[in-house]
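Colleagues,

For the teaching module next term, I've prepared a clean inverse folding example: a structure given as tokens, and then the sequence designed for it. I'd like students to try predicting residues themselves before seeing the answer, so please don't circulate the second half yet.
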């Protein structure tokens, strides 16, 4: 196996290190090769956004934190990419919300379940749902392997955090009456459209922010959390992200520096 050493001085150091995390997740069996393609799609949108967190994304982070804090049974759904990129933050969020973490895979195999579980346990998770026979309930409308969930996790949750997912799954969760908070760099995706709160940002940047928001907002009353959550309009917020992309493209067209 060839190990690539990326010098810190490289202008795309951060982004290359994120790729390395995914490749390492792929080698451990947690990330599907399709997951690498999904990352590439995300990177293209991130480039247009100047690889920074925009104000609209911060608004979505705040609203998402409120929804999760208001939930009676929140759950954090984790796939291979999410585990490879932000396992420690997943464990932190699960601690802050006292909620379970559940492995939920599009390309589900017993080996991949175990590989994702291992990453989460190494990052400090004590209980990981959705492994083996634990994933014996079903999300109606999704065919066999893709629809399997834990009876004590996603199946009975009222609010689910689902990152880097395909829209099908999110639509099916919404059809079950659940509220969904997602992270997706593509405001075009069906996931972005179908979710209650869509954070259009790179998960490696916004997930630590989401944890900090949950920590900050924990002190607020339920009335205050509801006021913020109900005042959030996902369609309008996603539209702001399209405008941020348009600004990024206009700047580039004028010879500006997207990183600036
Ligand atoms: P949909 O089914 O919702 O229309 P899709 O077919 O693009 O979306 P996937 O192929 O599962 O669904 O891709 C997952 C999504 O995750 C993509 O929209 C991609 O832009 C996004 N994505 C990939 N990597 C990241 C990342 N690091 N941070 C945030 N979003 C990401």
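(Answer key — instructors only)
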């Amino acid at each position: 196996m060839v190990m690539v050493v990326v010098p810190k001085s490289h202008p795309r150091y951060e982004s290359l290190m994120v790729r390395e995390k995914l490749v390492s997740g792929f080698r451990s069996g947690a990330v599907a090769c399709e997951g690498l393609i999904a990352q590439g799609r995300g990177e293209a949108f991130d480039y247009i956004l100047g690889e920074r967190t925009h104000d609209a994304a911060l608004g979505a982070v705040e609203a998402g934190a409120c929804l999760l804090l208001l939930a009676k049974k929140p759950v954090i759904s984790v796939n291979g990419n999410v585990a490879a990129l932000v396992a420690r933050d997943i464990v932190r969020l699960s601690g802050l919300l006292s909620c379970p973490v559940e492995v939920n895979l599009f390309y589900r195999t017993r080996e991949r379940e175990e590989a994702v579980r291992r990453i989460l346990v190494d990052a400090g998770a004590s209980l990981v749902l959705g492994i083996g026979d634990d994933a014996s309930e079903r999300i109606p409308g999704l065919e066999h392997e893709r629809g399997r969930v834990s009876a004590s996790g996603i199946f009975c949750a009222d609010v689910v955090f689902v990152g880097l997912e395909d829209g099908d799954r999110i639509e099916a969760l919404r059809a079950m009456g659940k509220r969904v908070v997602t992270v997706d760099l593509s405001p075009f995706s069906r996931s972005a459209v179908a979710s209650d709160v869509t954070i259009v940002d790179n998960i490696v940047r916004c997930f630590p922010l989401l944890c900090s928001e949950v920590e900050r907002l924990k002190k607020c009353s339920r009335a205050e959390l509801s006021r913020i959550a109900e005042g959030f309009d996902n369609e309008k917020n996603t539209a702001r992200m399209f405008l941020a992309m348009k600004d990024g493209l206009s700047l580039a067209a004028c010879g500006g520096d997207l990183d600036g």
